[in-house]
Specification:
There is one protein chain. The protein contains 9 helices and 8 strands. It is an alpha/beta fold and 225 residues long. Helix 1 runs parallel beside helix 2. The protein is globular and about 45 Å long. The termini are close together. The model has no long low-confidence stretch (mean pLDDT 96). The structure holds adenosine-5'-diphosphate and magnesium ion.
């Protein structure tokens, strides 16, 4: 069994895109793969197909049904806000112990590779006192850190690495997913981050046209898992 928590320096960076691409690559290589997206905000039940759980289910080759979505993404909130605020809008809250228990159960049951996609960035609040960082620290599984390729990403990434090191979290790989507007060469960003990453593998994933997530970079990321 190996389980990885997919986190990033912010929202809309590429966590789902990278996870879906990896799932496709690993399945084609004959590996058993499973994925969870326990907490989703900005979930609109009328356009389910583009939601993170639907994208992950599609990559897993599973049906995008209400039951399947509930099984991998139990905490869904409508407002496109941080989960604590999105939950509060609905008079709800996230039970942190239940969230850990849900994730832990899947980690313990998994016989193949499991990806747990976080929500937003590393320190997005889940409730009034805990963030995604506390969830990652509780689960103690290696991280897949997805960062952007935009100008400014190096500082964001190094700040994230410092915070993760303070909590003794292991990083399996850092993926630089090229951003839409990007005045910086992807290879230069990868090389800069690698210089500060203390030996952690850093893989660059170019902006792929049409959202097709097939690229040799996925094999390189998979080799680090
Ligand atoms: N390397 C890439 N090539 C093409 N599109 C990408 C790439 N990385 C991210 N995207 C696109 O950018 C958007 C945000 O990515 P997403 O994976 O949903 O971010 P996150 O899960 O971190 O919020 C999505 O539309 C996704 O398809
Ligand atoms: Mg996502």
């Amino acid at each position: 069994m190996s389980a990885y928590f997919v986190t990033s320096t912010g929202t809309d960076i590429g966590k789902t895109f990278v996870t879906a691409g990896l799932i496709r690559y690993l399945r084609e290589a004959g590996q058993a793969v499973h994925a969870l997206k326990p907490v989703v905000s900005g979930y609109d039940p009328s356009v389910v197909e583009t939601s993170d759980p639907a994208v992950l289910l599609g990559a897993l080759g599973r049906a995008v049904s209400a039951d399947e979505i509930s099984s991998i993404a139990p905490w869904r909130f409508r407002a496109p806000l941080s989960p604590d605020l999105a939950a509060a809008r609905e008079g709800r809250s996230i039970d942190f112990a239940q969230l850990i228990a849900f994730s832990r159960k899947a980690i313990d049951a998994e016989t193949g590779i499991l990806f747990i996609e976080g929500v937003g960035g590393i320190m997005v609040p889940l409730d009034g006192e805990r963030t995604v960082l506390d969830l990652m620290a509780a689960l103690q599984i290696p991280l897949l850190l997805v960062v952007g390729g935009y100008l400014g990403t190096i500082s964001h990434t190094l700040t994230a690495l410092d915070v993760l090191a303070q909590r003794h979290l292991k990083i399996a790989a850092i993926v630089v997913s090229e951003s839409e507007r990007n005045p910086v060469e992807l290879d230069d960003t990868v090389a800069s981050i690698a210089r500060f990453a203390h030996g952690t593998g850093v893989i660059g994933l170019p902006r792929l046209p049409g959202g097709i997530n097939q690229h040799p970079a996925f094999a390189k990321i998979a080799a680090l898992l």
